[in-house]
Amino acid sequence: MSLARKSTATVEQYKSNEISTVSQGKLIVMLYDGAIRFLNIALENNTPRKYDVVNNHILKAGEIITELMLALNLEQGGEVANNLLGIYVYIKKRLLEANMKKDSEILQEIIKYMEDLKSAWEEIEKKKIECRSYTIPR
Questions:
Q1: Is 66 left (phi over 0), alpha (psi -120 to 50) or beta?
Q2: Which residue, among 76, 80, 78, 88, has the nearest Cα to 114 in the 3D structure?
Q3: Percentage helix, strand, coil, to 5, in the chain?
Q4: What is the pLDDT of residue 66?
Q5: Residue 71 belongs to what domain range?
Q6: What's this model's pTM, rounded to 2 decimal places?
Q7: Please, how many CA atoms are within 13 Å of residue 67, restricted to the half-sphere of its CB?
Q8: CA–CA separation, 118 and 121 (whole Å)
Q9: At a CB cut-off of 8 Å and minimum separation 6, what does 54 contact?
Q10: What is the CATH number of the domain that holds 41?
Q11: Is residue 3 in some structural domain?
């Protein structure tokens, strides 16, 4: 095996280990990061000659939104999970519209929603870490 292949295999193993050992909240943040990255690529390439790139990246972002929807536990999550589901359904509709119209404003709107949701999850994760690090003095 060449050095380049060994290096690539090592990086892939590291990524796999990182994903399998992170908390569910951190994994959700990573999904938001991926969707935002794909949407930014779509936005940057939103020109007539690059519509195939736009389409592919909007579809990838949509797949991530679908995964976020499937990860919701509507029974245990109650109102919060149902509200998130409603937001995700709205975002999926707007993604479809943005893709059909190749509308940069809609893409920017979706990116803003995703960034806000990501920030909320980052705050939740931060508070969970703070709670875990707090110990009761004896």
A1: alpha
A2: 88
A3: 90, 0, 10
A4: 98
A5: 24-133
A6: 0.79
A7: 15
A8: 5
A9: 42, 45, 46, 99, 102
A10: 1.20.120.340
A11: no
